[in-house]
Each structure stands twice: as C-alpha cells, then as structure tokens.
Amino acid sequence: MLADRIEKANREAVERIFAGDPVLLDVRPAADVIAGLEDRVVLHAGPPIAWEAMCGPLRGAIAGAAVLEGWAKDLAEAERLAGSGALAFHPNHHFDAVGPMTGITTRTMPVMVFENRAFGNRAYITVNEGLGKVMRFGGNDEEVLARLRWIASDLGPAMGQAIRSLGGIPLKPIVAKGLAMGDEMHQRNVACTGLTVRAIAPALARTMGEAGKLATILEFVSGNDQFFLNIAMGMAKALMDPVRGIEGCSIVTAMSRNGTDFGVRVSATGDEWFTAPVEMPQGLYFPGFDEVDANPDIGDSTIVETVGLGGFAMAAAPAVAGFVGAGGAAEAIAHTRAMYEITAARNPAWTLPALEFAGTPTGIDIRKVVETGVAPTINTGIAHREAGVGQVGAGIVRAPLACFVGALESFAATVGAT
Amino acid sequence: MLADRIEKANREAVERIFAGDPVLLDVRPAADVIAGLEDRVVLHAGPPIAWEAMCGPLRGAIAGAAVLEGWAKDLAEAERLAGSGALAFHPNHHFDAVGPMTGITTRTMPVMVFENRAFGNRAYITVNEGLGKVMRFGGNDEEVLARLRWIASDLGPAMGQAIRSLGGIPLKPIVAKGLAMGDEMHQRNVACTGLTVRAIAPALARTMGEAGKLATILEFVSGNDQFFLNIAMGMAKALMDPVRGIEGCSIVTAMSRNGTDFGVRVSATGDEWFTAPVEMPQGLYFPGFDEVDANPDIGDSTIVETVGLGGFAMAAAPAVAGFVGAGGAAEAIAHTRAMYEITAARNPAWTLPALEFAGTPTGIDIRKVVETGVAPTINTGIAHREAGVGQVGAGIVRAPLACFVGALESFAATVGAT
Fold first, then answer.
1. Do the chains contact at B330 and A219, CB–CB below 8 Å?
2. B211 vs A207, A213, B198, B199, CA distance in Å?
3. Residue B390 — pLDDT band, cuts 50, 70, 90?
C-alpha cells in the first residue's frame, strides 16, 4: 500500500528529528569551514535567485558584503559589480548553511558550527548582529560594516574559544527550557539568550585575557534578546538535514524565502525547490513605519518552523503573539493547535506548558497541508523594502499553498502515485 | 461608614505597592548596613521564637552561623552557647530584613541592599547560597561554612562593586519580564536569574581585575536557578514596608514562618504578629526523602506571596506547578484565580500571559480570607527536619486561617468595630 509506505517513511523522518542531538561546537570564519565558499561567492537566504529578481534589502546586503569583503570600494561600485555577473550567488541551503532575513554569508564572516551528534552532519550560520539597522535587514552603511568587522575580529574568535573549552553546548535542553519560559525561538528568544549567556559567560571569562573586551562582548550578547535566533536556526538545520532524501517521505525538510520567492523542499524529492511568490507579513510596525515600507517575506529562519518551533510553538509564547500582532494567549494556542493538523507527530522532548505539556507539532506533511488548506504559520521580522534601512516591524506570514501543491505533484510522481 | 474607610485605606495600600520602585542598590556586610545588628545577634525567619521552641534546621543554621562568626569553635559548643542565653535571636522583619527558609543573618554575611525609590525605605537580605545542603535549609558543616566565607570574601564584594557601577538595578521590569517567562519568583526563578546575569555580567567584567575569580563567580550565579529568589524577597520587602501602619487598612504587610509558628502582620495593626502553628507543605520529595523527613513550613520567603508573586502568580509558571506537585497548567491557573478572591487589586505592571495578561492578585485582605475561608497559597522549599541535612523537596502550603482570624479580631478592635 502506497499510504502505508508513506506513513512508514514519515515515521522514520520524525524519529530522525527526535533522535537528533544538535550541539553548538565552534565559531570559525566561514571560509575555513564551509566547503566551496570561494572568493566572490555570496550565500543568501531562500531558493536560488538572480540579481535582477532580488528585492531591495537583499541587493543592499549583498552590496554591503561586497564592500566588507573588499571586492568593491563603496556601495555604488558593489552594486555595479553584483549586477555585472562578477559575483556568484547561491542559497545558504546549498552549502549546509542558513541565514536570517537576507541571510548573507561570505568568506570572512564568522559562522557558528553545529553538529548533529546522532548523525554526524554539520550546519553553519552567522552570528546574530543585533536589532535595527543590520545587514540581515538590508543595512549596509559603515556602522553596519564596522559591527560586522568587530564580530569577525573579537566576538567570533572569543565565542569559538569559549565554546570549544566547554566541549560544545547541547541545544535541545536549552530549547526545552526556553519553551517553558515563553520563547518560540523565532520572534522571541529572550529566555534562550539568557540561558546561552549563563552557559558561555563563565567560559568566556576563563578563556579571555582582556577584561575590557570581555565586558564589551557580554554587553553585546546580553543586550540582544534575539541573539539565540541564529543558534535556533543552525540547530534546526542540523536537525532537519538527516531527514533529506528518505524514499516515499512527504515531510518538509526546508522552508525558505529570498524576498521574492518562497521555497519548500520535501524529503522524497530531495534537493528540488518548490517555489511560489512570497506573501506580505501581517504584523505590527515600529514607530514611523507601516505596510508601504515593508519588504515581502524573506529569510531562511523558517527552518525553525520546519522543525516545529516559531509559529508552530506559539502556544509557548503568548507575549510574542502580541509582538507580531496576532492577539493574545488564546490566539497563540489556536495557532499551535492548527499546526497539529498538518504535522506528523508531537515532539516528546519539546513541550508546551499552556497545552498541558503537549509536544510541539513536528514534521510538516505536504499531504496534510494540501488536504486541509492550512498553510504553515510563520513568525517573522519585517525588513524595509529599500536597501540600507533595516527592520521595520514583525508579524505573521503564511507559507504559500502553491508551494505545497507543486511539491505534492512532484512527490506523487516520485512515489509512483497517479 | 467603616467599610468605606477600610476600602479607602486598602486602596491607599495597593497604590503604594503599585507606586513602589525597588532597586537593588548594593551588597555590603550586614553589620555595615543593618542598624542594631550587633555581635552575638542572630536574625532568623518568621515571628519571634525562643531557642527551646525552634525546629531542627533553625537550630542547626544558628549553630553554623555561630561557628562562622567565631562565637564558637565547633557546632557542639555553638549549640551550648545558643541554649545558654548568650546569643540574642530576633526576626529579620524587625531589622528591615528578610531571609529564605531558616533565614539566618549575622554580622559578617554580605547582604543585598534594596531601596524603594518611591518611598526611600531600604530592605536587606543575604545572597542565595545555591541548592541542597545550605544554611538556609539547616546545613552547617564545613562545606556550607566554606561557601559562606567565599560569598563574604569574593562574591559579595564583587557583586556590590558591579551593582554600584550600574547605579543600581531596577527590579520591577525584571519581574515583569520573568512573569512572561514562566517564573513565579518563589520556587521558579530561572528566567529572572538569567536576566540578572545578563544585567550584571558585563559590569562584573568591567569592574573585576581577576578573570579567574570572575569565572568562578559567573559559574556560581549561572549555576543556580534560584539565585534570584533572594532578590525577589528583598524587593518584596522593600515594596511592602511602606504599606505598614495605614489607619484602617486590612491588607497583610508580611507573612512569615519560623518553622514552628506562622506569623501575619496587617497594616492597621502595625508591628503585631498574629501567629498559629505552621502547617506541613504538601509536595514532591527529592530521591531518598519523603514526608517523614520534612520540617514544617519555614522562611520569610512568603513575602513574595504578600506582594502577589509565588503561589499567587502560579498561572505564570505551569512548570512550577509540576515541580511542587500541584498539577499542570490548569491547576496553576486555578491557584491564581483563587487568590483573586482574597486580594484587593490586580497589579497593572505585573501581568500573567496565560490569563490574557491580567495583573497579579495583589494585597491580601484579611477580611476576604476569613470571609471566604480561602487561605493564601504558598510555593515553598521543604527542609529536612534535622539540622545539617538541607533541602529535601518542594511543595505547596497554606497559610493557617487561624492567623487571619486572630488578625481580624485585633483589626476590628483597632478600627472600632464590634
């Protein structure tokens, strides 16, 4: 029976997710650890996209990265260079990586190294830059680049050294605690950021020589409630990659957006992206901004929803429902309940206190999405549509159903259904 | 009308609580800041009590403190000294102080200094020693005393210096965040401890010379999920003291236990304690221990319930309901709902996400307690009944109704009711 075969494959998928043991292992310059990240290569969020089709913040971030890497002397030259075909653009996902919002990853940027110790695979992501005008939201001026240079010269090496001295930091227990502390690990990471500071601050103190540098690093990390977001994303990527390529499996292995297209990958169909135009987030805007300023949905951060966090775990985080304009505690619970309809299992290690410690909805089944018409709920930041501005709000967005319809058609062909 | 007069007085009381602005200001040796804390004076939790009537852990902690202070060369000599009348015992509450469990405060112990900036009053409490075999649970051996000496020589001075460099740490915002992160600030302080580490770690790094000492301090604080408990207690004491002595006010200003008696103070009746025998907590025990090992209820920590946290804010902390053996999320919400029946107001600054951000139940009205028969719910640690052992579990306990009946009789006489 085809249905039995798919059920078995999907069970295998969720068992791999539940068996995963993701550990934050190190922080290293991207070029040292990401195979194939050559000079003049830019990794970006979402499925593949050409320069001409890119949105404002993505182009802006690329221009900033080109100046940062010394490929161009200023932003104008960087834009010309990027448009000339002299730079190569590839999705992070094609290099075992993910990145928030624009998701730019280039050679000199430090990346956190994650290992899923149950399967041996690794994943990579840059260190969170903070809030506001930052490269992931399209920021690219000297203030943005100076911060990235400091991350490369000071924060990254110190973090790497501290984390190595600890032998790595297991992440599933931190996320389990965070869910009991109001985080959903997409738009709210205040608890997990605190738990991370508690884990690494003593090691930073032990391994760093200069107290002044240490204080600056602790201030930077402690001052950014979203610091853990990138850790959650790298962890989710490390957890989901072993699910790729299971024959007959209809579970989503990645959801991602480049600001123009939303892309979905499914286990049985391997590396193929099923895309549709991204939607506009519905949310709340920072003072001075509104819908007309907003860029459409962007970023690899939907990897956290893919593993059952973010919008899927909204019941853990009633405070985030308010932040993204989605109501209160009752609405937060309703979002999570809806995600049970489109997922294969409940995660026994990650539980939701408000639902009497029910497990997070895990393993998006494209058949259930298409059958029910319930699109995955995603909590997201909102970038300004123009390069150079930064974050303007936060909201909720739905994954476009068309991606799942396309994926299901291809899946059906793959498994020999009619 | 008497009822109107009481209502007006009670409104004044809750307005004072809501107007309070408690700040953690400093850490200093107790003798330097607590007026009247002379040599051979021991401050303890709860209402006044004589040596002969004290329970095992309280006697044990006093013996340990006598050795720590150099009043006795060993525990046996210390017990004899304590029983001989050579030491003076007073409640912390009589010295603007509070203390968890046995609550011992003596001259050389560093205390955190709190100022309620809206009213100018100060409050004091020792630094949390960690979990297990510690003096607050009756521990008194060399391991316990060595830790206290390190707190006096290293942790206290470093914390004081860091906090002074920050100009103090306002506490209401930390508690507000903690309530959205699953803490109720009595048996669960994991979020607020993290927020505190984030606040002071950079300042510790800036103000401390020795990286090795800094690492040890960060490990100690980061390794203790209950580190914030003492901060919450000092804050609550600083918030409640301005409510004392309001004519016609039937709001409780302190609840406290010495392991033998439970004591209640009420605004209109000033410094009088209304006591009744303490009850046994109902809870869960650590492996190897059960009810027969448990000491009756003890500690000044019920000051957090007095200000609307702890058992009153259980809806914020479904995970603590499980820890203290009180069920799950639904039971946690039910506990908070019951406390609305006996309180005067809802705190607009401290809200409960699971109750759609309703304010915490604030201002225990002794009239309502006696009328409804609903006794205040208290989340508590459980000490071993013998000296020297330490914590054996955690649970829930009810304030004895008899205290409130006695208080109401005295209150009625004070306000001229029949």
1. no
2. 9, 12, 17, 18
3. confident
Give the DSSP H/E element, type plus range, for residue B95: none
Give CATH 3.90.1700.10 domain extents, chain B: 244-415
Nearest chain B residue to A220, by CA: B202
CB contact under 8 A, A177 and B193: no
Q: Does the pLDDT at position A13 exceed 70? A: yes
| Residue tagged 């999907």 (tokens) | A10
Q: Which of B166, B174, B181, B192 to mutate to test the interface with A (most CBs of A within 10 A)?
A: B181
Nearest to A211 among B180, B205, B355 (CB): B205
CB-closest option in A199, A212, A354 to B354 = A354
User: Would you state the torsion angle of the CA atoms of residues B56, B62, B66, B72, taken in this order, to the nearest 10 degrees?
Assistant: -30
User: What's residue A390's pLDDT?
Assistant: 87
User: What's the pLDDT at A14?
Assistant: 98
CB contact under 8 A, B197 and A199: no
Least confident stretch, A130-139, A318-327, B354-363, B406-415: A318-327
Please give the CATH number for the structural domain made up of A25-235.
Answer: 3.90.1710.10
**What is the ipTM for the molecules in this complex?**
0.89
CATH superfamily of domain region B24-235 = Enterococcus faecalis V583 domain (3.90.1710.10)
Which has the higher per-residue pLDDT, A32 or B328? A32
Q: Which fold has domain A241-415?
A: v583 fold (3.90.1700)
- Please, where are the H alpha helices in B90-226? 142-150, 156-165, 172-179, 190-207, 211-222
Which residue among A201, A209, A356 sits closest to B201, beta carbon to beta carbon?
A201
Q: What is d(CA A325, CA A7) in angstroms, rounded to the nearest whole number?
A: 36
Residue environment code for A161-198, b if the CB has 16+ CB neighbours within 10 A, otherwise e? bbbbebebbebbebbebbbbbbbbbbbbbbbbbbbbbb
Residues of A in contact with B222 (CB under 8 A): 197-199, 201-202
What CATH architecture applies to the domain B244-415?
Answer: Alpha-Beta Complex (3.90)
* pLDDT for A1 beyond 90: no
What is the location of CATH 3.90.1700.10 in chain A?
241-415
- Check whether A418 has a pLDDT greater than 70: no
Partners of A185 on chain B (C-beta within 8 Å) are none
Q: For helices A56-68 and A142-150, what crossing angle results, to 10°?
A: 60
Å from B394 to nearest chain A CA?
Answer: 19
Report the residue from B219, B319, B353 with minimal CB separation from A180: B319
Amino acid sitting at position B221: V
What are the two backbone dihedrals, phi and then psi, of residue B49, each rounded to the nearest 5 degrees?
Answer: -155, 145
Among chain A, residues having any CB pair with chain B shorter than 8 Å are 177, 180-183, 190-191, 193-195, 197-199, 201-203, 205-206, 208-209, 211-212, 214-216, 218-219, 222, 318-319, 322, 328-330, 353-357
pTM for this one?
0.93
